[in-house]
Each structure stands twice: as structure tokens, then as C-alpha cells.
Amino acid sequence: MIGTPPARLEADEVGRWFGEVMAIGRCSLAVGGGVIGLLGQNGAGKTTLFKLLAGLITPSRGQVRLDGLVLRDHVGLFRRIGFCPESDALPGWLTGREFLAMLARLAGVPRERVRPRVAELLERFELTAAANRRLGGYSKGMRQKLKLAQAVAHDPDILFLDEPLNGMDPQSRLEAIAAIRRLGREGRTVLVSSHILPEVEQMTQNIVLIHRGKVLAEGDVAEIRDLIPEHPTVVALRCERPRELAAFLVRQDHVAGVECEGRDRVVVRTEHALAFYRALPGQLLAAGQAVEEIHTLDDNLESVFSYLTDDSQGGAR
Amino acid sequence: MSRDLPMTGEQSGATAPRAIPDLTAILVVAGAAWRELARRRRLFSLGLLLLLPVVLLLAVSLWYPGVAPGDLLLNLLARNVYIPFLLPIVAMALGAPAISEPIAEGTLVYFWTRPLNRRALYLGRLLAAALVACGLVVLSLAAVLITLIAGGFGGLSLDVMRMYAELTVVTLLGTVAYTAVFGCFGAGFKRPLVPALLLVFGWENMVADIPQRIQEWTLRFHLRNLVHWPDAKPTDLRGILEELVGRILVRPPVPVWQSVLILLVIIAVSTVVGTYLLRRRQLDRQE
After folding, report:
1. Which of A235, A273, B82, B261 is surrounded by the fewest CB atoms within 10 Å?
2. Chain A residues with CB inside 8 Å of B111's CB?
3. Same fold: A8-220 with A232-297
């Protein structure tokens, strides 16, 4: 990829309605090269925008082009695209190896290259041990890794990763973030959607903020981050020994309160979300805890959107 | 990032990479779908269901030993068990979900983000479903043949072999026809089993016994039309009545070639329509 011009993806006043509901308003974007974070709350329209950009749904208005060609008219362009959907759905009756081999072959990897390529992907995403297990038995984290693996199987130069870190344990998150950054450095165009700003901040400085189907802002993440006032954030962690983890976390900086919920959940309240997110992987490693899932219960992007949309004053900034 | 939009690819002379050749895509998709189908529990249930003709043959040999010749029994099995019941059920269980299941499960997105034409995806999955369905029917027919040989039905006469060959061709053609129709339903309906059940157990059942040309608007009629009656006419009440009704209404018989042609047209049209529906299909918000 290095040395070749990056893929250029352009959306020209793209809009999409589902009946009476506007999922995406007039949205214009032009991206090419590097990692671009698509940020928005749940239901903001990120997934619909991804599907529009990836040619999976037809825009009600406007057009999407990849290097000047309309994606839906040229199915061959998918040789250059890798797509990691948000949904966890996988064909549960296939094994991980069969799934990757099938998709690599369908993406244009020559038959003789499929087997070594699949072995390489399984190794890179730490799925070799589970390669011959049926996908129905994969954990959420393993599914997430497999989805990423199939997206890069054919070495595409543009990647759509829809909430790629959902359900990953902290160590895998760090690895996935590093991998995404590396893909961007190699000259690929990587679009990553997320509703967690600190997560995206670790991958890229370029972000597009989307709210209620419209692009609110695009630009440098630092400028956006400064808009976030400090306020408490609640984070839920799922693990095997929640009481031990709670006892450990309560002694850490930036943690304002800890509660155990059910048999496998710890809920942490923090006053400094960014600092907490940065320190968390190291703290979990120090605690020797394997955390299966992390997600925010409230969303600190809320305040950014409130600020940008300025709902109270009835207009966008 | 910038918002300036340069000239289009067509204007700048950019060319798109080529799609995967259809044949390669069909074979890869069919291979994966085959593995998937072979591991589903429904295959076992269908296998058991397809032993029904064997059970019926065994029952006949136990209760009426030596009464019915093998070719007549095969004929009755074709007309009353395979064609109206087993073939539609097998096709429903395998053909209808061929496309509708990956749509409902949300796994279609992995195929749609690959450089393959949707017709190849449709044909690949339908091919796998039809092959598995035909494989099951062939196994059932093999079990029937073994039962005929071992069950004291007069051995393998030329008439029996001829009827058996006819039964094999007709059931395979019927399996492919029903699978193609239900596959098309799968591309067009969210719950394809509903129209499939209405077609088989509603429409076809309703008109199958109406002795008028309306019967010809069913797959069942054309499949039954391909199965000739053995020279020795049945002496049971149903057989006599059928012959009487046929004579009274003096309905000109539909030539066999016409039935074969109609079935082939149904297969082709269903496949083309199914492909068209899949091409137009979009991933909605839930998928």
C-alpha cells in the first residue's frame, strides 16, 4: 500500500429515508488516506451512513463514489473494500477457518493463496486455537476479531469498521487500536465508527461527528474534545471476579465510585473519563483480571452534541 | 479531509476492478452453503421423514403380502406420497431458507461486500439447496428400491425398473422445481414459508382434485402427468373412479413434453425472478 495513492471516497449530498424517517440528511464527505473516526451516539445514523458509503444501500439522494466510480454500479470495486459490520451475526454452522477461506476466495484471493492467508490471519488475530470450531460457539470478543480478520483478508485499501472494539477485552482493544493505526499509516483509508470519543482518539486525530443523521462537525479530535465539559461517566465492566476487580479499582486514581452488579459486572463511576480510559488497560493488567466487555452506560458525547446542536437555542453551531 | 469533489471516474478514465467470475463465485458460495446445510439438524429430520415411503411399503408387505405389484406401488408412491407431500416439504425446508435465512440472520452483508454479482450468490445458494434436496430424495428412493427387492414384491421386473427410473426422474425434477419456486419466495418475502405453505397445501391441494384445466396451474399436476399408469389398471375404488371421471369429462391429456417444458420454464422463471429480487434487495436498518 505504501507508495500508492490512497483510495478517495466521496459522498456528494447523500441522503437516505426509510419511509417517513430520515436516517441520513444531506451529507457530503470526501476522505482519502489515514484513519477517520465517525463519531455519534447510538441511533445517530453511523451504521446507515456506513452502509451508504459502502454501497450496501442506495441513497435516496446524492451519490457515493470511490475514486470517481459509483460503487453500486461497479461490483468489482469491492475488491478494494473491507467491511466489518456492527452486527455480531455470523454463519454459526461454519468454522472460523472455513468462514475466512470462503470470504477470502470471494474477495479475489487466488485459490493457492487462500490457505496460507487464512493461517496468517488466524495467527494475527489469535484465533488459531479456535480455527476449527464452529462460529456458533465463539465468544463476543472472538467474533469481533474474526469480523476484523475477514475485513482485511484480501488486503483492501479502504476499510469500513463499524464499532470494531465492541465486546473486546482490554488487551485485544489495545491490539486492535494499534492494528487500525498501522493500517492508516500504510496509506489505507480506514473509516471507524464509535460512540466512545476516547477510544477513537487513540486511533486518529481526524473525526467526523454525526448527530441525528447529519454531519455536525469534522476535523481535529483535540478541538472536539475540548468541547467536552468534565462530568461523571459510568462504565460497566464484565469479568469473572467482579468483587476482586471492584476492590482493586476503588483504590485507583480517577475512580469516584465502584459497585458490583449481578455475578459478573462491575460499574465504575469516574469524574475524568479520558484519564480513566487511558489508565484502564494498565490497571486491568496489574490486577490480573480478564475483562470480557467494557461499555459506557452514559455517553460523554452527549454534552458535545448538546453544545454543537445547541438545542436549547434552536440552531446548530 | 476536504469537501472538494473532483471529476468522476468515468470522466477521468478510471476503470473498476473486475468482479469475481460467476462460476467461481457460484462454486465457492455453493460449497459453503453445502457445508452449512449438511450440519443443520433439519437434515436429520428430513432424512427421517423421507423414510415414510419405506414404512408404507413395509406396511403393505406385512398386511397385504403379494397383493400389489412393485410397479403399481411405485406409481402410487409417486402420485400420493412423493409429489404431493415429500417433495414440497423437502424443498420448503431447504429452498425457502436458502436466501431468506442469511437475510434474517444478518450474514448476507459478508457476501454483499465481496466483488461478486448477486446472481452468483443467489445461484450458489440455490444450487446447494437443490443438490442437498436431491441427495436426500435419491437416498429415499434407494431405500425404497432396497425395500422393494427385499420385501417380496415380485422382484425387479422390467416394468418395476422402468417405473423406478421414471419415479427417479420425476422426483428429481419436482425437487428442483419446488426448490426453485421456494428459493424465489425466500428472496421476495420475509417469511417465505407462509406463501410456500399456502401454495402447496392451499392452492395445489384445493385444485388438484378438480377435474378441469385449472389443475394445470399446479406443479403437482405436471409432475403427476409425467408418471404413467402401469398397464394393469388399479382395481381399487379410487382408480376406477379416476378413470370414470376422466372418461366422462373427456379431458384431452396434456402431452408429457408439455409438462416437462412447463416445469423447466417454472424453474427458469423462478430463478430469474429470485435473482432480480435479490439484486433489488437492500439491507434495511435491522440488517
Report:
1. B261
2. 106
3. no
Q: How many Cβ atoms are within 10 Å of A21's Cβ, its own excluded?
A: 9
Which residue has better confidence, B182 or A259? Answer: B182
> pLDDT-based confidence at A110, cuts 50/70/90?
very high
pLDDT digits (tens, 9 = 90+) for B56-78: 988 888 887 776 777 888 888 99
Q: Which of B5, B27, B287 is the mutation pick for testing A, counting most A CBs within 10 A?
A: B5
Give pLDDT, residue A107. 93
**Does the pLDDT at position B248 exceed 90?**
no
The CATH class of the A232-297 domain is: alpha beta
Q: Suggest the residue from A18, A106, A189, A223 to mutate for an interface test with chain B (most B CBs closer than 10 A).
A: A106
Closest A-chain CA to B287: A87
Q: How many CB pairs under 8 A join A and B?
A: 125
Report which DSSP code applies to A62. E
pLDDT reported for residue B1: 40
Tell which A residues from 8 to 27 touch B, by Cβ distance under 8 Å: 8, 10, 12, 18, 23
Number of neighbouring beta carbons within 10 Å of residue B108: 23
DSSP string for residues in A201-239: HTT-SEEEEEETTEEEEEEEHHHHHTT-----EEEEEEE
One CATH from 3.40.50.300, 3.90.190.20, 3.40.1500.20, 3.40.190.10 for A8-220:
3.40.50.300
Q: Where are the domains of chain A?
A: 8-220, 232-297
Nearest chain A alpha carbon to B6: A68
Q: What does residue B73 show for φ and ψ, rounded to 5 degrees? A: -60, -40
Q: pLDDT band for position A305 (50/70/90)?
A: low
**What phi and psi, each to the nearest 5 degrees, are found at residue A226?**
-65, -15
> Which residue, A27, A34, A70, A69, is CA-closest to A50?
A27
